[in-house]
Amino acid sequence: MLLASSLLAVPSARAQVDGRSCATPEPTVVEALRMSQQVRAFQARTAEVGRRRAGPVTVPVAVHVISEGEGVAQGNVPQAWIEAQVDTLNATFRPLGVRFALALVQRVENAAWYRDLGLDSDEEQAMKQALALDPSRVLNLYTVHPDLDYLGWASLPDAQAEGDRQQGVVLLDQSLPGGDAAPFDLGYTGTHEVGHWAGLLHTFAGGCSSPGDGVDDTPQQRSSSTGCQVGRDSCPLDPGLDPVRNYMGYSDDACMTEFTPGQQARSAALLGQFRPTLTAGGFALATVPGTDLAEAFVGVGAPAVLRVTNATDAPFAVTGVAASGRLAVAAAGLPATVAPGEAVALALTVAPGASGAFAETLTVTTTRPAAPALVARLRGTAFVPPTARLSTTAIDARVVDGGPAERSVTLTNDGDRPLTFSIDPAALPAWVTLVSPASGEVPPRGAATLAVSLAPAALAPSRYSDPLVIQTNDPVQGDVVIAPGLPSALAVLPVWPNPARGPVTVPLALPEDATVRAEVYDARGRRVAVVADGVPMEAGFPVLQWDASSAAAGLYIVRVWTPSASAVARLVVTR
Predict the structure, then answer these.
(1) Which of 141, 177, 209, 496 is the most exposed place for a label (fewest CB within 10 A)?
(2) In Å, how far are 141, 289, 345, 369 from 132, measured between CA atoms?
């Protein structure tokens, strides 16, 4: 059996990489001869019975994006890079009769997998065991920052059984199109490693000795080349120049341009022999990334991406999506047609109906004649979302002379996840000078007390409609607001100043819009002033003014009437 994997090593300076190098020994002559014999035997059998199926082989690709995690974005490559890598595979493998469809993009945060991954390491085995998707029908591709600065490696077809979870390709994340691993940043590292996965060896395997890479139309090459050494002839006694433009060499990405017909025949034989389920085709897949629903909120629609892949030779349409158990699912863009060898991405909205762990089945209905239903698995945990509740949504914002200028409000979190809150100082209403604390986090099922400092001078004698807005991460109601509340009954609030010598403010509590009459009487019951004579006022906390400068010292009574109620207050005038 040949070696399990091929590795490409690269120096640590990612912005400019000096050259590829292989860290794994090449197969021995005996191993290479055995593989060539297997290729010839398979080709002989297929020649006798004819092709198993017509048309290109469709390879669904599951891309597992591993990133540093813990608030570090390193490794979380953009979706555009991933799609460009699949496009590159399709462009370069077209001569080999292989097409690729992006069947899954799964993003996982794991610093050890991202930074410490090495060939056959404990980290690699754990990562693939946890993440691999249906290896007998899917190419699992992992993007990481490999240990020892390798550009990547791949499992050869005969390395494990076709369904073994250790099958797959590992790539340096920055080697994808858009990365910074120049001159290996055009996506041809992916082509090179998938070539190994398809059974191709380095063009310099075996040096100038037969059987070399097991392909007749790639001239023998004594050693790997660097850069773009067109015209190099490292085996001058053998016909042909070194195949430095071949994807299975070590040239710079910009120099790579080809696979040969012999490589196409070899990969077809090895894929057919060791990956028969994949090459037989005739199947479809439905996938949802497990990380999309790792945590979801009860009753709150969470976005997810459903990808449906067609590995058959005929188009079909996706007509419906339904969930079992406690999930509610809605899919946009239906019906959606899936062409042969392609995948479509459908936007889902998934809402759990109850808290706790869930493992549900998503049934995708299609127009495929033989097997119209596809199944995807949804796993995760549902939580009651952070839920903001205020002890009051209306506070008495009127401040009288000598009275408190601060109110307390309790913000409670009724959810299972922390509730964050913040108040924009620039957006405070005129009747508030400060809220403390202005931001913070309320633990699950916890509460926080907010002190609201008032600005009495900014309160107009009318209705106060400008609310105090508290921004939260409550996904249902978002912001919560506090407004100056309306009183429940007519009252003359404490006048101020009291005692007084000059102007006096008479604050009222007015529960509804009304016509107001207000008068001042001395201790003997004589009316000394009319402060308001049928003045229309709005509900809230309006104020009246009376100038007591000319009043004699003594006790005075302030009487207020509306058509439905009356109230009084006392005032002392001094000299």
Answers:
(1) 209
(2) 9, 12, 20, 29
Containing 197, the helix (H) or strand (E) segment is helix 188-197
429 pLDDT more than 70: yes
CB count in 10 Å sphere of residue 545: 11
Residue holding tokens 């890079």?
81
Lowest mean pLDDT among 27-31, 137-141, 219-223: 27-31
What's the alpha-carbon Rg for the chain, to the nearest Å? 38
Whole-number pLDDT of residue 32 = 65
Q: How far apart are CA 119 and CA 70, in angstroms?
A: 25
What is the C-alpha separation between 302 and 403, in angstroms, rounded? 48
| pLDDT at residue 461 is higher than 50 | no
From the list 85, 105, 272, 265, the residue with the least C-alpha distance to 188 is: 85
pLDDT (average), residues 290-317: 91
Helix, strand, coil percentages (3-state) for the chain, rounded to 5, are: 20, 40, 45
Counting every residue written for the chain, the total comes to 575
Model pLDDT for residues 127-160, shown as the tens digit of each residue? 999 999 999 999 999 999 987 778 899 998 888 8
Q: What is the pTM of this model?
A: 0.79
The whole-number pLDDT of residue 110 equals: 94
Phi and psi torsions of 504, nearest 5°: -125, 135
Report residue 487 as tokens. Answer: 């009183």
C-alpha separations of 305 from 29, 58, 359, 554 in Å: 47, 21, 17, 79
Distance CA 495, CA 562 (A): 19
Q: How many CB atoms are located within 10 Å of the residue 107 CB?
A: 17
Amino acid at the residue 253? D
User: Cα–Cα distance between 214 and 201 in angstroms, integer?
Assistant: 8
Question: What crossing angle do the helices spanning 29-49 and 261-274 adopt, rounded to 10°?
Answer: 80
Q: Which two tokens stand for residue 499?
A: 């005692």
In this predicted structure, the answer to whether residue 486 has a pLDDT above a threshold of 90 is no
Which residue numbers are catalytic?
A: 193
One-letter amino acid at 257 equals T
* Two tokens, residue 331: 């899919």
Q: How far apart are the first and last CA of the chain?
A: 112
**Structure tokens that stand for 376 in this block:** 């995807």
Position of tokens 């995760």?
380
